[in-house]
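Predict structure. Chain length: 319.
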Amino acid sequence: MPLQHWPLFSELQDCQSILIAGAGGGFDVYSGLPLYFALRAAGKTVHLANLSFAELPTAPESGITSHCVRVDADSRCRSSYFPEKTLAEWFRSHRQEEVSIYAFPQCGTAPLIDAYNQLRLRLNLDAVVLVDGGTDSLMRGDEFGLGTPEEDIASLVAVNSLIPTGCKTFLACIGFGIDTFHGVCHSHFLEAVAALTQSDAFLGVASVLKNMPEAQEFLSAVQHANLNSIHRKSIVANSIASAVEGHFGDVHRTGRTEGSKLWINPLMPIYWAFHLPAVVQRNLYVDLLHGTQTMRDITTRISLFRGQTKQKEWEDIPC
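Prediction complete.
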């Protein structure tokens, strides 16, 4: 069964201009590549965006807003770490395509909301699929560990602001097990999926299988990134790639994970899809983030919330 035969794609059937956006920064946009290629194969106009950790270009011609920059294969950056440009370079060298990636700097919810709304107008978007490389974006705030919630929640709030415009919004998580590296209890993730199932917000799962053309493009892009991001290879993208290829257990594709124990497993290359508004509504601290200007503001408010909230105990998945 091809990737297009999936409830999420039924929801997107009438949409023509779709944005696939990395939620958590870094290489999250790579986690959306299988969706990108599947939607393109379905005849959609598909765009890419990412919350970026790079020092983004400041040239006037690159700016969409003060908090959104268009990155292409020729964009300049003072640092060698620039996943968005690396991806654009892969499109040029591997597919002979000039593809732009719209990049957002790390910032608070207020400027990110404005950036997403301006981008919606520029691209005439019908839908946004926010992609999390990992599963910590489903943590509502009282779990044992939240992983790295700041970027995810900023992206969720910003994309959720598009609802009044009629733009459809979704969240897709891929990489089950990766966030153990960041202290996330995956039993709590499954509890969140169950809660979202009760509210009809869970749109099911789809596996990225090794022989799918979408998977082959993803693997090629990750390999290219490894060769061109020598000092900052992506833990998430490489873990998913290992799982796509059929590896299992404590498999390390990058020295960044040396000294830790990984759990590469067949659940990693599976997309879990959700209606995004229900994910935001379930979050316990989202109302505290309104009007934040910087990522530091978000970190501070999450820390204050956690200090006043009883956390769940760790719960192993029975086996």
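Summary: The CA atoms of residues 117 and 162 lie 7 Å apart.
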